[in-house]
Amino acid sequence: MTGQEALNLLMSRLGSRTDAALRATLLLEINAMQRELEAMPMLPWFLKGDDTSVSTTPGQEYAQLPTTFLRVDDDWGGVYWQNVADSSPDNWLELTRTPYPTMKARYREDTSANSPERFDILADRIYIRPIPDGVYPLRFVGYFSDTVIAVS
Fold this sequence. Notes:
With about 150 residues, the protein is an alpha+beta fold. Helices cover about 25% and strands about 30% of the residues.
């Protein structure tokens, strides 16, 4: 169902209303409800997905999360890095989630060039240890927000 169809249905159920102000208010309510539902502990299956739009930056401990990323599900999701030197069909290697203070302390003295092993998510960033020595494509398998309903 498109945003236009959803609003038409609601306007119809409210007695075939045509008021533009009511329509605009309903659109605000729909989008507020979507944000509220996406913050719930249990998320619907149709928000499951993966994203490969993010890569690490050499010498930088974090990367920005995909803009639509909601969270990783510990039962079936995860964060992976692509070993481009590996020519096998599946060259995505899983990162282990570790609390940021723990991984920071563990890799504090590590100055060797290494590929990613651990991650933690804080706010809108993913923090990686050891600090990446190169550009590594990342894959996020988890929940992603749906497109906000808009009408023309």
